[in-house]
Amino acid sequence: MKIKKLFLENFLCYYGRKEFVFEDGINLILGRNGEGKTKFFEAFEWLFSSSEKADINIVSAKRLKDIKENETFTVRVALTVEKFGENFLIEKCFEVSLKKSQINIENFRFIAYENKLDGSRIPIDGDKKLEIIFPAKIRRYSMFKGEAELNIFNNENALKELIDTFSEVKHYPPYINLSDKLYSWFQEAMDKTSRSNEKINREVNIIQAEIERRALERHKYDRLKKEAEQELEKASNSLSQIEKNSERCEMIKVLNDRIRKKTDEINSMKVCIDESYTTFLLDEKWILYDFQPYYESFCNKILEVRKSKNFEEKKHNKEIAKKEVKLELLNEATPLPWFIPDESTLKELLKDELCKVCNRPAPKGSEAYSFMESKLKEYIDRTNQKNKTENDYELLFPNNYIENFQKLQIELSTNGINIENLKNEIAERLEFNRCRKEDLKRLEEELDKEIEEKNRIMAESTVHEDELLSMHSNIREWTLIISESSRSIEDYRRKIESIDAELNEKNETKNRKLAQVLPGYQMETNRILKDINSVFTNTKERLLSEFIDLLEEKSNQFISRINVDDFTGRIRLRRSKDKISVLLINADETPIYKPHGSLEISMYMAVLFGISELAFETKEENYPMIFDAPTSSFDGAKVQDFYNLIYDLKKQCIIATKDFTIMKDDRTPCVDEDTIEKVKRDKTYWICRIRPFNKEDLSTIETIVEPYE
Amino acid sequence: MNDLFEAWRSARPPYYDLKYKEILMKEFADYGARSKDIKAFETAYELYIYAFFVGLYNNEKKPISKKENSYGHKIEFWGNKAGKKFRKDFSILQKYIFVALVSKTDVDFLALEKGDISIDSVVSSLMETMEQYANGGMNLIREKFEDNESFFFTPTGFLNFILKSE
Amino acid sequence: MARADKILKTFLSDSIIKDKYNVDSEDYPTLTHALNSDVPIVKAIAIIIQDVSSEIEMNDKQLYQKVISFLNRTTA
Q1: Is the dihedral angle over the CA atoms B25, B29, B32, B36 positive or is it negative?
Q2: What residue in C sits closest to A528 (Cα-Cα)?
Q3: Beta-strand pair A143-144/A625-628
Q4: Which CATH number fits domain A2-134+623-707: 3.90.550.10, 3.40.50.300, 1.25.40.10, 3.50.50.60?
Q5: Which among A101, A338, B106, C55 has most CB atoms closer than 10 A?
Q6: CA of A537 to nearest chain C CA: how many angstroms apart?
């Protein structure tokens, strides 16, 4: 079956009449987001739906706005299809009118037209014809909305539908039902016969009771085994998730460690930096940095005062006869204070007969020696002076503040602050702090990077950090559960096996007893009926598995072509009871837990292609496939591979996509001529809203449809 | 004992202009025992010392207008931080201040030696010099603070202000 | 091949038929062949298939009687 044309009239953003002509092979409908791709897909959906009818919401707002009183226009979606060499038109439409300022919707029709031999057309029920031309069960697997509707097997009846549509399996269940009946009726008949013999009957009943009891037990173990299998599966999945996350977990641990170390470094650096400069002014005496001139001025002043004092003293003492020894210096220089040098020093000099200041000899009897002697005498006299009354001397200078000044001067010059060095100290400290602050800034930047890195990794993970770290510690737990479950499963399996053996034995015994009262041929018949039942059941199971395997194999052929250079894994179709699930597995058979993004999409699409090929083989007819943005999560080369694959399928595909389109600088969309050139295609359309439009006002929206060469 | 230094340091503490209590002391010196903010100077006299050196280095002497508000701390206790954690003793600064005062005050020391003038009067003169330099310094600080409100609230504010002195 | 023949072939390919009864599905290319078989299980299966795939189905009881009486006769 091929779709030849699509007509849209006043449907959603398609104002007026628009027509798409399709070829065999790949048909591209190119449009940016919001330009009308999904509405295009929805047109097919509306047409194909048996429940959806006339609805004001699908009427083109622009057309609705234009409507005048008593005017009527049509809303229509129609398809021309070719099947078995014949063309059919299927359409859904209704009329919109404005009467007495009221919008009316009426005259809804869903019809198909068949061509008669004489060239005329007759209308027939659209729904019925659609079912014949493009059955729902096949449509379901021919239309793909991309990320919007991924799990094609979500529906509970999906498996049954697939089987009924595409495989022979559907023919077999009636046989199974029938053979069940035949067998159980015969059993009943046999039991009736045996009941007539009391003794045997009793024995058989006992055995039968035993059989039933054991059967119950078996059932219990079977259930327990299934539960254990579920546990095992859950644990295996968790383990694989953990393994997937363990790398992440390792990285997080490493980063946490680095973050901790860096924070410590930063904290100890902060402690180093002391900027209490104002306090240092006093505590470190930095405030004296410029004090030297004042100190020198003080020293000079003291010297001057001493000089003057000495001068006046000399003058004063000249008038008074002195008993004291007058020591005069050469050059009339100002003598040293009486207490310098001190008593013990003077005594030492005299003893050694040497002036130790200028290193010249002062032998006894020399001028130098007697000078030193007199100085010593003066010292002793002065220190004894406190014993003398003031009245002995008429002192010019009763006070001696100057002396204390000198003491202060000496103290400061020997034990005072090294003023010269303060400027350096200050500069050094400022520089030290500046460097530490730079280091700190650098460390803080590095810390930020680590934290950013960690956040980035955490963002990728779907699991919270604590969970991630604790998951790691659960590995042991899960491994334990896995081994325990495996043991239990094995255990139950053996128990079930032994019970089965026992049941067989009991059944044999029962049959032997029965055989004592029943004619031999009945036993034979019984056996044959039982075997027929087994054959029917096994066959159906076998066919079902073969079908699933076949579908799986076909899907895998497609997925390797969609993901040519990429890691993919294999598709595994798993059946449990009557449901199918689609999984992706690694080369070592472990499941890829929750593949998402483009991997997930390729997985489902591969299955769809597989089904489509099956459809072709079983129905001996090809059906088109319709896609809405299938590659939206693919990147780069994968997109190219996808379209090449479609082209090679040699199936009719209609694909609405954003690929091969770009935005121009003035923010209007257009086809990307460079990339579209490289794509093998059979027909291309460009859809785009007329600009300008007001995105708040639907009535300004109209999508134009243009073929693109 | 003829120690002018001792006489000076145990005399009454110096006066300062009342207006600076509001403008500077409250802003930059820690007053109460339980002050919420951390002020640049732990005590008022520390700010006084700082103002003195500012005045000295910039050669700014300004006589004080009202003789009001001397404050409790006698000079002899200045810098005595024994027992305080995180502070060092800077009582040696008393000697340097004294040195500066002696150098910058016009006193007839010979008269003092002769006993012609009393030690109290000398102490007074020295104190006056101190008050004038401190007052001059506080004025400079106030002017800078008015020009740039945030200058003294950086760690290097007070340091830089005194370092740039002529 | 009619569907009935296909179904027959599928059933006869089952391992029980092959191993326990030593029957080769090739021996019975059509339903008609199987209906003429002297292997009881093969003929029984054929009878069942014939009934299910015919357009006029017997009711199940009738089919039962037919199969049982055939089997009892042959195995006796």
Answers
A1: positive
A2: C41
A3: parallel
A4: 3.40.50.300
A5: A338
A6: 10
